[in-house]
UniProtKB/TrEMBL annotation:
<feature type="transmembrane region" description="Helical">
    <location>
        <begin position="37"/>
        <end position="59"/>
    </location>
</feature>
<feature type="transmembrane region" description="Helical">
    <location>
        <begin position="123"/>
        <end position="146"/>
    </location>
</feature>
<protein>
    <recommendedName>
        <fullName>DNA-binding protein</fullName>
    </recommendedName>
</protein>
<feature type="transmembrane region" description="Helical">
    <location>
        <begin position="7"/>
        <end position="31"/>
    </location>
</feature>
<keyword id="KW-0472">Membrane</keyword>
<keyword id="KW-1133">Transmembrane helix</keyword>
<dbReference type="InterPro" id="IPR009577">
    <property type="entry name" value="Sm_multidrug_ex"/>
</dbReference>
<keyword id="KW-0812">Transmembrane</keyword>
<feature type="transmembrane region" description="Helical">
    <location>
        <begin position="91"/>
        <end position="117"/>
    </location>
</feature>
<dbReference type="Pfam" id="PF06695">
    <property type="entry name" value="Sm_multidrug_ex"/>
</dbReference>
Amino acid sequence: MNTSLIIAYIIVFLLSAVPLFEAFVVVPVGILGGMNFVLTLIIGILGNLVTLLLLIILVDRIKQWYLERQERKGQEKSRKSKRAEDIWNRFGLPGLAFIGPFFVGSHFTALMALILGGSQKATFFWVTLSVIAWTLGLSILVLFGVDFMNLEGRQFLSRFIEE
């Protein structure tokens, strides 16, 4: 493996760890760019889950900060918070975990699940399952889309990661 390719995988890991970038966005882009499907998938999911786990471990402090911030600003619940609460009331934790990341990202979804009363273990389990499902599903669609469109030879990242 050359240095440029290692840097590309590190970038996938780091971008997947950033809330709002999410693995299910970064991994398909990497695959479209010509990176290895399985390796990119694993590295992207791990990047997303590292920060998700940190969020869940530190949830008490983050939850307190979030609620105090809302109170200090004197704001009503945001549109995202209302949407998350509606999904929670209608579908419970599994529903929020699978629907939420599509709209607000996995990190905010986990935070809302914990604020709405989900346990740390259950929240981590369901959101992890959701991240894996979304990332795998979108990556497979990209992989088949690339094959279907016969774009295998046109990998736009290849010029950056080749020696």
